[in-house]
Structure formats: C-alpha cells, structure tokens
TrEMBL record:
UniProt KW keywords: Kinase, Membrane, Phosphoprotein, Transferase, Transmembrane, Transmembrane helix, Two-component regulatory system
MF GO annotations: phosphorelay sensor kinase activity
Higher taxonomy: Bacteria, Bacillati, Actinomycetota, Actinomycetes, Propionibacteriales
Gene3D superfamilies per UniProt: 1.10.287.130, 6.10.340.10, Histidine kinase-like ATPase, C-terminal domain
Protein name, per record: histidine kinase
Species of the source: Cutibacterium porci
Length: 458
C-alpha cells in the first residue's frame, strides 16, 4: 500500500470516528432535549387538570376521550388500591405499571417513562400524585411519541447521510492530498531507482518549497556533487593516463635498447650508463607521479581525525627538507607560533610542495623567503615568476606552464596544496613577488582548544 493510500485511509478513519461520535452525540442530545421538553409539558398538563380531576375522580373531572384526542393526549387515574380509571369513550388504552402505583401510594415523586399502548404505539407517560377526600391517586398523562420519533428518525437520516457524504468527500480529498504530498517522495524514489539502474544523474523537478521541496533540493545538490565528482574522476583518469604514457614510453624504449644490446654489444659503456641514468630518472618521476595520484585519490576520503598543533613546527620541518633539496640556495625564514586544527602531516606536505616549487625555479644563490605573519604563510622565490595567463590555472591538476614543461615534476603538487588548504577551511593564492619571482600566500584560520578558550575569556 502506497503512502498516499495510507494517508487517505488514516484521514478517512479519523473522519469516520469523528463524524460517528459527533452524529451520535447530536442525536442523543436532541433525543434527551425532546423527551425532557415532552415530560415537562405532560407534567404541566397534569398539574393544571389535577384540581378538576380531584373534584370528580370518578368521571376524571368531566374530561372525555374526544376532547383529549384533539390534543393527542391520554389521561389515566390510578388509585392507591390499584383501581384504574380511563376517560369515557377512549379507544386506545395504556396499561400502567408499578411505577404509577407507587406514586399513588406514596404521594410523592413524578415518574416519566415510555410504554406501548393497545395499538402498539409508543406513548410517553408522566404520573403525579394528588389526594381527594383522603384517597391517594396518581394522575397519569401521556402523549403519542410517533411525531417525536419521526423527528429523531429524520434527524438520524440527515446525520448519517451528511456524515457519509462528508466521509466520501474527505476520503477523496485525503487521497488527492496524500498523493500530492507524497508526489515529491515518489519522484525522489524514482530518481534514486533511475540513478541505480541507469546512472543517469538528471535532477528531479522541485514541486514545492516546504520540507519535501528542501529534500528534493538536497537530493539535486547531491546529484550535482556526484556528477562533478564523476567528471573530476574521468578527467583525473584521462590526465593521469596522458602523464603516465610519457615516462612509460621512454622507459620501454630504453629497456628495449638495453635488451637488444645484450646480443649485439654495440652500445659503448658511456651510452649504456646514460640509458641507465635515464631509466632511473624516469623511475623517479614515475614514482613521484604515482605518489601524487595516490594523494589526490584521497580527496573524497574521510579526513584524518583533526588535532591541535603548532603550524610553525610543520613549516620548520618543511624548510629543513627544502634546505636539503636546494643546498645552493639561501632560505630567509621567519616563523611564529600559530595553533591550527587539522592534520599536521598533510599541511607539512603542502608547505613542502610550495618549497619544492620554489627550489625548482630559483637560480643558484637565490633566496627563498618563508614568512609566517598572523594567519598567513607566504612562500616566495627569485625565479622567473608566474605569467599572468598562468595564474588562473596554476592550481589545476596536471597544469604546467610553458616555463615548467622542461623541468621535472608531475603538475600535481600545487593542486594537492590547494586541496589540502581548502580542506582546512583556508585558502591559497598565487601572485608575483616583489623580486619578480613566484609568491604563494596561504591562509589557515587560528584555532584554540576549548579549555584554553574558556580560560582566555575568563
């Protein structure tokens, strides 16, 4: 059973219960009101004619059946000894019971209830006590309930008919409303099934601006992110395949030359050594590329558990690596404590990549400057710098400017830096240094452990 049908059934069941209780309550209250009014009317009538009957109990005060029939009233006199007197000429008789006799004997109380007359018609009777010449009587007045019950029957038909019509209309409205309310959920379910079976990431239509509409918007955002991730994955595979083809082709050519030389021995030792050096260099470049690809493959993986650490320590370690890789360069380093929340290893690698880039392009005897000030880390060099046309693409994967095409590298280092900094709620930008070289400005927000924040605030 669909959710729309369940909603319709629930609404219909609720309406059935509400209509039934309301109709029954209305009918019972109307019945009680009509009977109470009839009892009061019969009591007033009995009270009004009781003095006349008390003056002549044998003839019921001169009241005849014909006069009573005009008002559809029944009159009976019950004596304390059980003798019953009815109006002369009455065609319909009503049998009294112990309740009326008890009123006559005790002389107190008013009894009202419903009995059946000799013709099988329900009659409402009321008995009141009175005394005549020391004899106790109960004067019983009654009235035909046919009209009253017809009114109650008509009311019951109206209530039931109205209730049934209301239930049907409510069920239809509930079904329509349920289908309308669950339509976004059906669209979402179909979209999920479609994505599972066809891998089609077409967004679904937004039908409303309520919670279900927000759910559809979130689902469309998820599809968009998934589509972008898929495109990035395809692009990464295509770019990686292109970048891997060059070192593999070179290595294959060199290996084939070495294998052919095993039989011909035509290559001199110097040429063989150059080929082996080239193979070693290609293996190093290949290993570096594989390492960068592994790093990028973790882009969508859950980040390591963040910890508080001093960024200056990570920068200092990266500078030590840079000194070893550029022994003929000068390093002007200024660091200061800067507590951040994140993964120290990945941030250290990001700074190392920036320093590797500076070492690669700096001339012999040049200076690499590393400055930490506030929330920023600035790395600059005295190399040829970055062309204005290359600045918008400098952090793209596998992007290499014309100046960098003949230098070693994979074209992934700066992309890894940008991803690492962004994942730590920071940003990085590239520009030209005052000396003309490249300058990278990296922003990482300062973080304080909760305990220290509360201590500082106090």
């Amino acid at each position: 059973m669909t959710m729309g049908r369940r909603v319709s059934l629930l609404v219909s069941a609720s309406v059935v219960v509400a209509v039934a209780l309301t109709s029954l309550s209305a009918w019972l209250m109307t019945r009680i009101s009509l009977y109470s009014e009839l009892d009061e009317q019969l009591t007033r009538m009995a009270t009004t004619i009781s003095p006349s009957v008390a003056a002549d109990p044998q003839n019921l005060g001169g009241l005849e059946a014909s006069s009573l029939a005009a008002t559809n009233t029944t009159l009976i006199l019950v004596r304390a000894d059980g003798q019953v007197t009815t109006a002369p000429g009455a065609e319909v008789t009503v049998t009294t019971g112990p309740q009326e006799l008890a009123v006559a004997r005790t002389g107190i109380g008013v009894k009202a209830h419903t009995v059946i007359d000799s013709q099988g018609v329900p009659v409402r009777i009321v008995a009141i006590p009175f005394t005549s010449d020391g004899v106790h009587y109960a004067l019983v007045t009654g009235q035909d309930l046919t009209g009253t019950r017809a009114t109650l029957g008509s009311l019951w038909i109206v209530l039931v008919g109205t209730g049934v019509v209301g239930i049907v209309l409510t069920a239809i409205a509930g079904y329509v409303a349920g289908n309308s309310a669950t339509s976004p959920l059906r669209d979402l379910s179909l979209a999920v099934h479609n994505v599972t079976t066809t891998e089609d990431l077409t967004p679904i239509r937004i039908r409303s601006h309520d919670e279900l509409g927000d759910l559809a918007v979130s689902f469309n955002n998820m599809l968009s992110s998934l589509s972008n991730s898929r495109e990035r994955q395809k692009q990464l595979i295509a770019d990686a395949s292109h970048e891997l083809r060059t070192p593999l082709t070179s290595m294959r050519t060199n290996v084939e030359l070495l294998m052919a030389d095993q039989q011909s021995h035509m290559l001199p030792d110097e040429a063989r050594g150059e080929i082996l050096d080239d193979v070693a260099a290609q293996l190093g470049e290949f290993s570096s590329l594989i390492g960068d690809l592994v790093q990028l493959s973790r882009e969508d993986a859950p980040p390591p558990r963040p910890e508080y650490f001093d960024l200056s320590d990570a920068v200092s370690k990266a500078v030590e690596r840079g000194r070893r890789r550029g022994p003929n360069l000068n390093f002007d380093v200024h660091v200061e404590p800067h507590l951040v929340l994140g993964d120290e290893a990945t941030l250290e690698r990001a700074v190392t990549n920036l320093l590797d880039n500076a070492v690669k392009f700096s001339p012999a005897g040049g200076t690499v400057t590393v400055t930490m000030e506030g929330d920023t880390v600035v790395v600059s060099d005295e190399g040829p710098g970055i062309a204005e046309a290359d600045l918008p693409h400098i952090f793209d994967r596998f992007y290499r400017s014309d100046r960098a095409r003949n230098t070693p590298g994979t074209g992934l280092g700066l992309s890894i830096v940008a991803h690492t900094v962004t994942s730590h709620q920071g940003w990085i930008k590239a520009s030209r240094a005052p000396s003309g070289g490249a300058m990278f400005t990296m922003y990482l927000p300062r973080a304080e452990p909760p305990g220290e924040e509360s201590t500082a605030s106090s």
